[in-house]
Amino acid sequence: MKLTDEQKAMLDGKYGEGAAYAMKIQVGIGECFDAERMVPIKRAHVALSNQDGDLWFAEKMVGYGAKCRVAPTVNPGFCLEHFAAASKHPVNAEDADHMRRTDNAYRTLGAVLSYNCTPYIATNVPNFGEVCAFSESSATPYVNSVWGARSNRESANSALCAAITGFVPEYGLLLDENRKGNIVVHVEADMKSAYEYHLLGMMGEKIGEGIPVFVGLPHTIRPEALRNLGAQLNTSGAYGMYHIVGCTPEAPTLEAALGGKAPDREVVITDKDLKEFEEEFSDEMKGNRIDFAMFGCPHFTLEEAMYIARRIEGKKLAVPMYILVSSHTVQMAERMGIMDILTAAGAELIGDTCPDQPCWHYLKGKVGITESPKCAYYPRRRNLHFVIRDLDTCIDAALTGEVR
Ligand code: F3S
């Protein structure tokens, strides 16, 4: 790889041990992918997980004195305040300490402590063609596909290295020739709401490996639906980007999305595919009863919180409902009186928190309902179980305690 004088100096330690270590990792990655050079970034997102490996690496970089040149936004862990010792369901001292250490490490590194997995919707939005380093399953496909920015599928660690050095190796989705679609996906299913985009994204096995080009979807699609599509494509498979003909910026036509080449495969997705997936993926209920409802994986927007508030205003939920959002959305909901409506009905709007965290210890063995397959998928390892249904059915289930 050809490095500039500044990059060589960084590798040699002129900018400190942390920057040298991060640059060494990135040069290694670049060499693996035959990158010819490193290119600058102005934007990054680190999919911090608050798990052991993540904390180990972040603290190691702190130990080396690393500082981010480009302050990255970060993914959620869990909200220490919401699950504090005096709360209804406190986390144990060890888990609280782990979250505190994660918080300290990323603060010391100079990250933006956003604790939100959908920064691409409001807080960290790249321009068309901008090179950046985004990790997080829904974030990478969103910035590539919807904004037309350029990011590889970074890991949390490689995105942190990029934030520290301010550079990324130029390979993969950073290059024009690797951004063309090779699989045409004809969508014949009725895409009524953002929920069907969750299910469409879970068709990874049928779609296969590559860059899908969706045909048959509307030309204007809500950000929430596009968020869901990317999140689930990276739950059912590994996709750095997709195209939607007539909707996403690099797909004005099918020919443009495919780069003028014939596709490697064509796939048809029907209502039957989505329905079968919904049934197979859901866990068993006790009768039709559920114990709780959880939304916001990926984090819900303010609009979604407002929609739920309208649906449950003046009513009482039969089971607890957890709505996971950014802290910015929490603040807006408080200012707007949405929080009061949700709280009065028995719902909790929680910032900074992900379903795949130890704070949900008290839901072990219980069966919840969610509209997100990703929400159902990851917390299974924590012995949380889920039925998946569309959002309206989920809200009705939380009101009655039963899935009808
Ligand atoms: Fe976000 Fe955690 Fe789900 S990071 S997408 S809430 S698994």
Write the layout of secondary structure elements.
Layout: H1 5-11, H2 17-32, E1 38-40, E2 44-46, H3 52-63, E3 73-74, H4 93-109, H5 119-122, E4 133-134, H6 139-146, H7 156-165, E5 167-169, E6 183-187, H8 194-201, H9 204-207, E7 212-215, H10 223-236, E8 243-244, H11 254-258, E9 265-269, H12 271-281, E10 292-300, H13 302-312, E11 321-325, H14 327-336, H15 338-345, E12 347-351, E13 367-370, H16 373-377, E14 385-388, H17 391-400
Parallel strand pairs: 2-3, 2-4, 6-7, 6-9, 7-8, 10-11, 10-13, 11-12, 13-14
Antiparallel strand pairs: 1-5
Helix pairs in contact: 1-2, 2-7, 3-4, 6-10, 8-10, 13-15
Bound molecules: FE3-S4 cluster.
FE3-S4 cluster is lined by residues 75-76, 117, 138, 231, 297-299, 324, 354-356, 374, 378.
Report on the architecture of this protein:
With 404 residues, this protein is of the alpha/beta class. The chain has three domains: 5-176, Aconitase, domain 3 (2-Layer Sandwich), CATH 3.30.499; 180-277, 3-Layer(aba) Sandwich (Rossmann fold), CATH 3.40.50; 282-400, Aconitase, domain 3. The chain contains 17 helices and 14 strands. The strands form four sheets. The protein has a five-stranded parallel beta sheet with strand order 12-11-10-13-14. Strands 8-7-6-9 form a four-stranded parallel beta sheet. It is globular, with a radius of gyration of 21 Å. The termini are far apart. The chain binds FE3-S4 cluster. Residues 75-76, 117, 138, 231, 297-299, 324, 354-356, 374, 378 line the site of FE3-S4 cluster (F3S).
